[in-house]
Amino acid sequence: MTNWDLGVSMRGESGPAAIVRAAVEEALSGEKDEGKYISPSSLARGCMLYVAREILGFPKPPLEPRIKRMFEVGIEGHRRIERYLRRMSLAQEVFFQDDRYRIKGYCDALIFIPPSLSEEHSGLYAVEIKTTGSWEFGRIEDEGPREDHRRQLMIYIWGLKRYYGLPIRGGIAFYEDRDSLEHRLFDVPYDEPLMEELLGKVEGMWGALRKGRLPDDHPPLEHWVHRYCPYLDICEVGKEALEYQREDMLGQYY
Ligand code: SF4
User: Fold this and answer.
1) Do 197 and 87 share a structural domain?
2) What is the domain range of residue 100?
3) Which ligand 1 atom minimizes the distance to the CA of 48?
4) Whose CA is nearest to atom 5 of ligand 1?
5) Residues with CB under 6 A from ligand 1
6) Count of Cβ atoms closer than 10 Å to residue 154 Cβ
């Protein structure tokens, strides 16, 4: 039994204070090697081959300066949008961790809609913030949140429920057009079957890695995700996918 379990610190603190002290000291010690965890954004891509390569530390090509700048603009946009939510925001960058599936990350924001604003919808919601270019924003307005963004919200809701035991009512996808600064928000209800399927894939991936091989689990060849994957240059499936897509496109013209 640890001091955490006893709720008693060496300084005689007890209860929650002792637990928080232990957490702070553990964070400051930086000594604990917890091994590899899957990040929500990686898992949300929906490719277990990608996730496995990341876990194994396969190198990625360096980001172009333009892409780096876009990331920086995205991070600044996140901070600004988080400020817009402050009248109902309980926390930003909310940590969660799951040791069974080895998934760890941060939810962009956890908000609470108070009963004074809506009796019907009052409660906790996980928020995913995305800034996009105009073309993508227009497509999202027409078609709704991207499948990887929906998946990321499911992972947030699942992770927050499991780690904190919180009754999260659902998710909200918050998009900002980087060019016009227009906003578009979507309700994204929790999808239990989708999350169970994803967790089954995660178990399969860890099983393959334990046997010393890469998982044979990736999106279909026609999926757009291969084109934007940093492992494309070393991935036979990705190359096959691009060839398939090229032939498919040519087939539409001839
Ligand atoms: S190129 Fe495609 S199959 Fe290969 S790791 Fe990337 S997303 Fe997965």
Assistant:
1) yes
2) 61-214
3) 8
4) 50
5) 47, 49-50, 218, 225-226, 229, 231-232, 235, 237-238, 241
6) 24
Give the pLDDT score at 28: 85
In a domain, 244, yes or no: no
Which residue from 41, 227, 229, 243 has its CB within 8 A of the most atoms of ligand 1, so it is best to mutate?
A: 229
Q: Return the number of other C-beta atoms located less than 10 Å from residue 133's C-beta.
A: 11
Q: What is the CATH number of the domain that holds 75?
A: 3.90.320.10
What pLDDT does 185 receive?
Answer: 97
10 Å Cβ neighbour count for 235? Answer: 21
Which pLDDT tens digit goes with each residue over 200-231? 999 999 999 999 999 999 999 999 999 999 99
Q: DSSP 3-state assignment of 186?
A: strand
Task: Flag whether 90 is in a domain.
Answer: yes
Are residues 123 and 13 part of one domain?
A: no
* Gap from CA of 42 to ligand 1 centroid (Å): 11
**Ligand 1 center from residue 197 Cα (angstroms):** 19
Q: What is the DSSP letter of 230?
A: T
Please name the residue that has the structure tokens 């946009």. Answer: 77
- pLDDT for residue 35: 82
Most informative mutation of 237, 242, 243 for ligand 1 (most atoms within 8 A of CB): 237
Q: Between 30 and 51, name the one with better pLDDT.
A: 51
36 phi/psi in degrees, rounded to 5: -90, 140
Distance 44 CA to ligand 1 centre (A): 13
* Number of domains within the chain: 2
Write the pLDDT tens digit of every residue in 51-106: 999 999 999 998 889 989 988 988 999 999 999 999 999 999 999 999 999 999 99
